[in-house]
């Protein structure tokens, strides 16, 4: 075929201008006849694709393909997005219509489907292809013309490929189709199609019914446009219609309006939009009226309110738990809360970022009726109004819902029910809820891989274990004679990395890092590769993991198990044995045989020189000890060199759980900090840094790198004030200065290491997030990794669990001209070397790694709450903690024992003070009885002061003070149970209490039996009662109990008189 570039056509359409005038637009088009069909089974069209490794083709195994029309795209997009819905041919006709009608959100969703190669779907340019292009007939409507264009395209595909084509439409039917001679084209509604091809798929069957009845945003727009005669429903008080898109765009361009992602904190009471460089501050959006139907995550347009309406940012602890945002976003709102912030109102939506939400039907929902309110698990999301024919079936269940629309006349958004996850508060249900909330795919959540993907796996069976091929052995560097070993947590199955160290003689030593060769088994654009790319990472939760790769690879063939031959990609450094200067570096494919799968505890014992390591053969230990000690010598020097350049040693609060088979959590264990952990990490950092530089040298425009940008000065405000409250200073002029400041604090706080630990944690939170980039998208001076103090860095050492590492492996092996890597590319250009493709991969990986981190955090909090639930059945769970954050209504306490941070509320939801009586008595039973007439004063972000008439002096709770707390669980029907704490006492300063005699105690009881309003006056005339002792508190409690049982005060006082007589006789 040859392109016909001299044949021209025109496409005209009408569009409304900013002034509501209708204008005709004409676009010139060049008609071609060399547009490929993008089908695997068509060899002639594949020649037209050229020498690029195109990622999406129509699968040759499919028995039919699908062409949706506009009615299907607008109503059933959620079904088209489903992982199992494949073989879609998206027409240029539909794309053009979406662009003309400002349906960019729908267009982007369709592009995501096309770009997700698991869908095996393509876009076809039928409007400029000579064989499918049609012209509009006189008097013909646009809708009818577009339908004929789709029919022409379906006819061409059926003739060209000889396969059935299904036209999907809710408007046109089989009678509206002019059959082709081959008669391989059929017209179906979505319901007919699902019934025919997915009769037993319960989710799709349910969705097709629900979506058919849903009122979508586009339905509302049509209703609004057509309601010229009839008045539309009145708007909910405070809500207003959004401004026209043309006005929004003009306002943004002139800086009259501001656009950004709306982020809500904790609840929907407040949120913010980044004001950007023009404003230099976040814009607060306070209250549902100003949010104006925008939802957390939407791309909104905000109009600033007058300065009279500007306010300070809220700095309270949310009473109902938080949203899915990370701690950095929380810190943005709570730093500098005393300064006035601009406020604004949402006047338009540029993009709805609605997703699947986990929710629970509201408890007081009546059994009758079709519409019900679902309360989302994420408290930043509003209640969603859904329709369900039998609410009993989904009550007390975690369900998945989607938002369809939010009309101005409705207090809540309209949505639809998708599926049920299971009964609330059951472990498997709550884990499934975490996966849905963080966008973990259904296939990964079910730990499943397609049958076609599993066919790509190497054979590895008990009676026929996988063995290296002789031909491949000849191509690799044989390192099986080296003493190679892995060091991992106990029971690790997916072993990515192994180490080696040896003397070479002549004053030289060799350090080796050996990484599982995943890219040898997972070829680019194979089904396994596409699935791994979409998953992005293995997701690790507290009690389970969800793999990126099939277990035959992750646990067996790729895993570097002991005493078996395994393919690896190795980095070998030849160094000076005294200065550790690197003389030479070798990268390449190798064959290794690990001598031992060591645990960290065993390796540390060998490093410490112990004669025998636990559960390790003595002879094997003697063999490994010299290598481990040599490895430690090298890596200590490497680490010290990096620290001298400004590398930061920051903190995390990772924990692991001891869990029985019946889900009983017996213990929570904080992350271990043995030296061997840091040494293994240093080896991985070194390998990642060298590989990062090597792939950049080979692919300067498309190298996958890990970038950690330096923080802005304002991000350290909270850390600086926290340090000053303890007499320290923080120099953050560079990473080296910050590192020295934190180390100085650690040296001075050896008697109280939690202070240094929390300050390092605050520094971690203040940092910008590290992310993957393609080198072609940034200048060289922005590649720097701030936290590690490295000019070049990537991820290379964990390809079993991170897809970024697989990309790095492919790029590295092409850089060193590996024979197999080059053969895999063949004559085609790999997407691994194209800047735009690598950048797209990086964007997905950044999203997936972020959501994986949040899922892991939510899982940890879930199991911490289970531990508190199980361990408070027979009595209170009392622990010592450190005040980690100060807020206006209380503070957060960090419990090092459990790696848990929870709130202590000093002000209740009703605004009344809730300072516990236990603060004076020291008795944990008094933690839910409160001191009367308290006053709270906050000095953000370092102290909170409590004053009361019954206190001898104010009580000051300062950042990093030690407190005793009782851990409790706030149970919820719609949300997860939340761990909170009640205060027992402040350990850093003892409150003085005067021991009272019985007679003084009786006087105090009589005086304090009056109303709270009279209590202060009485105490002014009673110098002996300015302080309530523990005895008096107990007496007052007994008095309170006695009056409840209709006893008189004189009966109680008689008991104390007898105590007094006894006291006098004993003295």
Automatic annotation (TrEMBL):
Q: Which Enzyme Commission numbers does its entry carry? A: 3.1.13.1
Query: Which Pfam families does this UniProt record tie to the protein?
Result: OB_Dis3 (PF17849), RNB (PF00773), Rrp44_CSD1 (PF17216)
Entry's localization field: Cytoplasm; Nucleus
Q: Which GO terms describe its molecular function?
A: exoribonuclease II activity; RNA binding
Q: Which domain of life is it from?
A: Eukaryota
Q: Name one GO cellular component term.
A: cytoplasmic exosome (RNase complex)
Its BP terms in the Gene Ontology are:
nuclear-transcribed mRNA catabolic process; rRNA catabolic process; rRNA processing
Q: Which reaction does it catalyse?
A: Exonucleolytic cleavage in the 3'- to 5'-direction to yield nucleoside 5'-phosphates
- Name the cofactor(s): Mg(2+)
Which first-to-last residue range defines the signal peptide? none
Q: Where is the RNB domain?
A: 476-818
What keywords is this UniProt entry annotated with? Cytoplasm, Exonuclease, Exosome, Hydrolase, Magnesium, Nuclease, Nucleus, RNA-binding, rRNA processing
- Keyword Methyltransferase present in the record's keywords: the answer is no
Q: Which family does it belong to?
A: Belongs to the RNR ribonuclease family.
Q: What is the protein's given name?
A: DIS3-like exonuclease 1
């Amino acid at each position: 075929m040859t392109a016909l570039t001299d044949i021209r056509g025109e496409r005209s359409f009408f569009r409304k201008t900013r002034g509501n005038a209708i204008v005709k637009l004409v676009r010139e088009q060049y008609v071609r006849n060399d547009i490929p069909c993008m089908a695997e089974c068509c060899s002639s069209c594949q020649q037209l694709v050229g020498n690029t490794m195109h990622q999406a083709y129509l699968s040759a195994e499919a028995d039919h393909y699908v062409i949706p029309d506009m009615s299907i795209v607008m109503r059933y997009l959620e079904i088209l997005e489903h992982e199992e819905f494949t073989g879609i041919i998206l027409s240029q006709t539909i794309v053009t219509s979406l662009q003309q009608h400002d349906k960019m959100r729908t267009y982007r969703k369709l592009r995501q489907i096309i770009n997700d190669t698991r869908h095996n779907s393509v876009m076809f340019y039928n409007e400029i292809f000579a064989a499918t292009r049609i012209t509009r007939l006189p008097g013909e409507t646009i809708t009818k013309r577009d339908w004929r264009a789709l029919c022409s395209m379906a006819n061409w595909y059926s003739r060209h490929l000889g396969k059935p084509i299904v036209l999907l439409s809710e408007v046109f039917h089989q009678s509206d189709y002019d059959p082709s001679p081959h008669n391989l084209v059929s017209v179906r509604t979505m319901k007919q199609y699902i019934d025919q091809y997915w009769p037993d798929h319960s989710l799709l069957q349910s969705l097709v019914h629900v979506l058919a009845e849903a009122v979508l945003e586009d339905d509302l727009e049509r209703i609004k446009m057509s309601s010229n005669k009839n008045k539309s429903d009145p708007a909910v008080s405070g809500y207003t219609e959004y401004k026209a898109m043309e006005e929004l765009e003009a306002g943004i361009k002139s800086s009259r309006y501001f656009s950004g992602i709306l982020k809500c904190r904790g609840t929907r009471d407040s949120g913010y939009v980044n004001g950007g460089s023009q404003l230099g501050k976040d814009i607060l959006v306070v209250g549902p009226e100003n949010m104006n139907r925008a939802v957390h995550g939407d791309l909104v347009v905000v109009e600033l309110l007058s300065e009279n309406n500007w306010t300070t940012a809220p700095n309270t602890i949310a009473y109902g738990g938080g949203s899915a945002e990370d701690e950095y976003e929380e810190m943005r709102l709570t730093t500098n809360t005393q300064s006035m912030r601009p406020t604004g109102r949402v006047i338009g939506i540029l993009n709805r970022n609605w997703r699947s939400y986990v929710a629970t039907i509201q408890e007081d929902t009546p059994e009758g009726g079709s519409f019900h309110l679902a309360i989302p698990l994420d408290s930043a999301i509003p209640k969603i109004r859904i329709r369900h024919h039998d609410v009993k079936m989904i009550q007390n269940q975690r369900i998945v819902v989607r938002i369809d629309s939010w009309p101005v006349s409705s207090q809540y958004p309209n949505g639809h029910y998708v599926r049920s996850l299971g009964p609330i508060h059951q472990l498997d249900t709550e884990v499934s809820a975490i996966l849905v909330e963080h966008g973990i795919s259904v296939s990964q959540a079910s730990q499943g891989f397609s049958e076609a993907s599993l066919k790509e796996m190497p054979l590895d069976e008990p009676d026929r274990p996988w063995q290296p091929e002789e031909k491949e052995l000849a191509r690799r560097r044989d390192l099986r004679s080296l003493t190679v070993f892995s060091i991992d947590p106990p029971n690790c199955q997916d072993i990515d990395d192994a180490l080696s160290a040896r003397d070479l003689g002549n004053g030289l030593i060799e350090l080796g890092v050996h990484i599982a060769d995943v890219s040898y088994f997972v070829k680019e654009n194979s089904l396994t590769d596409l699935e791994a790319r979409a998953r992005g990472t293995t997701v690790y939760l507290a009690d389970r993991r969800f793999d990126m790769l099939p277990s035959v690879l992750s646990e067996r063939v790729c895993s570097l198990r002991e005493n078996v031959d395994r393919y690896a990609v190795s980095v070998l450094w030849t160094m000076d044995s005294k200065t550790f200067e690197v003389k030479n570096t070798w990268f390449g494919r190798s064959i290794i045989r690990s001598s031992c799968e060591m645990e960290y505890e065993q390796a540390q014992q060998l490093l410490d020189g112990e004669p025998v390591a636990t559960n390790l053969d003595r002879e094997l230990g003697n063999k490994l000890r010299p290598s481990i000690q040599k490895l430690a010598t090298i890596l200590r020097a490497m680490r010290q060199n990096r620290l001298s350049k400004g590398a930061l040693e920051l903190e995390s609060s990772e924990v692991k759980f001891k869990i029985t088979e019946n889900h009983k959590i017996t213990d929570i264990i904080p992350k271990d900090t043995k030296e061997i952990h840091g040494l293994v990490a240093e080896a991985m950092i070194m390998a990642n840094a060298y590989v990062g530089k090597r792939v950049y040298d080979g692919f300067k425009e498309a190298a996958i790198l890990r970038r950690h940008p330096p923080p802005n000065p304002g991000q350290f405000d909270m850390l600086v004030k926290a340090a000053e409250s303890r007499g320290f200073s923080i120099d953050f002029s560079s990473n080296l200065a910050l590192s020295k400041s934190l180390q100085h604090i650690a040296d001075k706080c050896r008697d109280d290491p939690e202070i240094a630990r929390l300050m390092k944690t605050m520094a971690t939170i203040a940092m910008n997030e590290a992310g993957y980039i393609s080198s072609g998208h940034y200048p060289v001076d922005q590649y720097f990794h701030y936290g590690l103090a490295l000019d070049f860095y990537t991820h290379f050492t964990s390809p079993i669990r991170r897809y970024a590492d697989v990309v790095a492996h492919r790029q590295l092996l092409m850089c060193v001209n590996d024979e197999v890597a080059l053969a895999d590319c063949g004559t085609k250009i790999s997407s691994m070397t194209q800047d735009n493709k690598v950048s797209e991969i990086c964007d997905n990986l950044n999203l997936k790694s972020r959501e994986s981190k949040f899922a892991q955090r939510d899982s940890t909090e879930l199991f911490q709450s289970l531990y508190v639930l199980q361990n408070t059945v027979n009595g209170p769970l009392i622990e010592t903690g450190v005040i980690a954050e100060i807020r206006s209504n209380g503070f957060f306490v960090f419990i090092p024992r459990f790696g848990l941070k929870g709130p202590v509320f000093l002000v209740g939801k009703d605004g009344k003070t809730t300072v516990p009586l236990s603060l004076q008595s020291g008795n944990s039973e008094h933690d839910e009885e409160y001191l009367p007439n308290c006053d709270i004063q906050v000095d953000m972000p370092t102290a909170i002061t409590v004053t009361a008439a019954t206190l001898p002096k104010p009580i000051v709770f300062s950042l990093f003070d030690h407190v005793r707390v009782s851990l409790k669980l706030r149970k919820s029907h719609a949300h997860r149970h939340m761990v909170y704490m009640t205060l027992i006492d402040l350990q850093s300063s003892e409150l003085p209490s005067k021991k009272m005699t019985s007679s003084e105690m009786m006087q105090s009881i009589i005086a304090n039996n009056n109303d709270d309003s009279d209590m202060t006056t009485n105490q002014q005339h009673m110098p002996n009662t300015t302080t309530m002792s523990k005895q008096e508190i107990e007496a007052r409690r007994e008095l309170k109990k006695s009056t409840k049982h209709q006893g008189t005060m004189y009966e109680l006082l008689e008991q104390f008189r007898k105590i007094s007589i006894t006291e006098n006789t004993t003295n």
